[in-house]
Structures are given as structure tokens and as C-alpha cells.
Amino acid sequence: MNWGSWSEFFAMGGYAWYVWGSYGVTFALLGLEVILLLKRAQQREAKT
Amino acid sequence: MSATIKWFWFASPQTFYPLAGTLARWFAFAAALLAAAGLYVGFFLAPTDAQQGEAYRIIFIHVPAAWMSMFIYVVMAFWAALGLAFNTRLSGMMASALAPTGAIFTFIALWTGALWGRPTWGAYWVWDARLTSELILLFLYLGFMALQAAIDDPRRADRAGALLAIVGVVNIPIIYYSVQWWNTLHQGASVSLTRAPSMAATMLTGMVLMALAFWSYSIAAALVRVRCIILERE
């Protein structure tokens, strides 16, 4: 195990902005794509 | 012979539509499982890097996203070329369905690379051959999508997009070999088919799991999008 506590985990050895900035933007973008896709699929299915 | 018939049967959008829906669900499920496993290995099992500390953990999304950005482009160009050669409707739709997901992964590769570059190189961005060619890849994706959006007739949009996609393929080997051809700040490949990987086994496991998760995600997203395109066009 790498982390003694949750605060240590979130601090990422002082690289919190870089690590969480990467993961945050990645999953936010993929999540956004999923939401937009499901919305588009629902609209199309409703029309036909 | 029967195999040939089957492929052409699925090349019809109407028969492909329900199959794509079932496949998309399975790949979405696989993507979630693989990502959970990959994140667990990446954050809790992989050790701290001796040189880079915790900053190296960006690798678990940076490298898989960069692989996907290139791979999706090749697949997109392949479908586009198939559409040009055989004039099958589904091929052009597949190419259009892949482009947005590919563009997202290209942006993710650039973004995570910038956030990794700052602590390790001291700069968010440098005009390095690897970074510049990857940025060109993002413009190729955006150009492909803009070109298709600008043409009303979907069949003409497919053909115009296909030309752009096929010409743009030349950029893929440039990205891949840029670290060998030029003296780049970006490091060379850590993983290759011919050499043993230059990293700890747990790090490699985390990276491979995340790569598989991104693969499954991309397949699921492209299939859902191609279903929308089929409904919109047919």
C-alpha cells in the first residue's frame, strides 16, 4: 500500500494539481461524451 | 463463401443496428470493469517512481490515450477508404462515428501530457516533434468533423471526409517515430513489441488495463454513435 492516509492520497506527494488535473479532465470529458451520446440516442429513438 | 455473405449482410445498416446495440452494452460494461481494475492497480498497487515521485501516475491515462488517438485514426481512415472503394453506406457512418471519440482521446493525450510536462520538464508545452505532430492529429480530427458537418449531402460528406482522413494517415507514423527521427524532449517508447518493457510489472499492468478500458470505451461509444447516425440517415 502506498498511502498512509486519505489526505496523503489526495496530496499525491505534492503533485495533486498535475495528477488530479489529468484524471479529472479525462473522466469529465469521457463522462460528457457519454451523456451527450445517450441524449442523442434517446432523441433519435423517440423520433422513430 | 458463407462468411462473405454474412459480412455483406452486416454491412447493411438495418441488420447492423440491433447488433451494434447489444455489442455497445457489453463493451461499456467491460470498459467500466477494466477502468476500475486499472485505477486500483495504478493508484494502490504500483509503487512510487524513484525519479518522478507520484507525478508519473499520469502515465496510466496519458499513454493509453495517446495510443487510442493514433489507433482510432487508423481505423477511421480504414473505414473511410473501404467506403470509397466499395461504396458501402455503413463504412462512411463508422468513420464519422469514430472521429469525435478519437478527437477526445487526442485532446486527453495533449492535456495530460501538458500536466506531466510541467513538473518533469518545467514547461506545459514545447514545440517538440512528438507534441507538434500530436497537435496536428487533433486538427485532422477537427478538420474531418468540420468538413463533414459543412456538407449537407451525407454521401458527398463521406467521400470528402474520406479523402481528408486517408491523406492524414501519413501523420500517424510521423507521430510514432518522431521520438526516433528527431531529437525530442519527449522520451522514447517505454513499451514495444520487440524489447522488454522498461518499467515495473505493476506499472505495466495498470497501463495495459487502462488501455483495454479505453479500447472498450471507444468501441462502445462508436457503436452508440453509429446507431444514432443510422437512424438519422436511413
Structure description:
Chain A is mostly helical and 48 residues long. Helices cover 79% and strands 0% of the residues of chain A. Chain A contains 2 helices and no strands. Chain A has helices at residues 6-11, 16-47. The radius of gyration of chain A is 18 Å and the shape is rod-shaped. The termini of chain A are far apart. Chain B is mainly α and 234 residues long. Helices cover 79% and strands 0% of the residues of chain B. Chain B contains 8 helices and no strands. Chain B is globular. Classes of the chains: A mainly alpha (48), B mainly alpha (234). At the A-B interface, helix 2 of A face helix 3, helix 4 and helix 8 of B.
Secondary structure blueprint with pairings:
The complex is a heterodimer of chains A (48) and B (234).
Chain A: H1 6-11, H2 16-47
Chain B: H1 2-10, H2 13-45, H3 59-86, H4 89-121, H5 129-150, H6 154-168, H7 171-181, H8 201-233
Helix pairs in contact in B: 2-8, 3-4, 3-6, 3-8, 4-5, 4-6, 4-8, 5-6, 5-7
Summarize the structure.
In chain A, 79% of the residues lie in helices and 0% in strands.
Which spans of chain B of ≥5 residues are poorly predicted at pLDDT below 50?
Answer: none
Structural class of chain B: mainly alpha
Helical fraction of chain B equals over 70%
Q: Rg of chain A to the nearest angstrom?
A: 18 Å
The general outline of chain A is rod-shaped
Number of helices of chain A: 2
Largest sheet of chain B: none
Specify which chain pair forms the largest interface.
A-B, 28 and 32 residues
Number of strands of chain B: 0
Distance between the termini of chain B: 28 Å
What is the element string of chain B, with H for helices and E for strands? HHHHHHHH
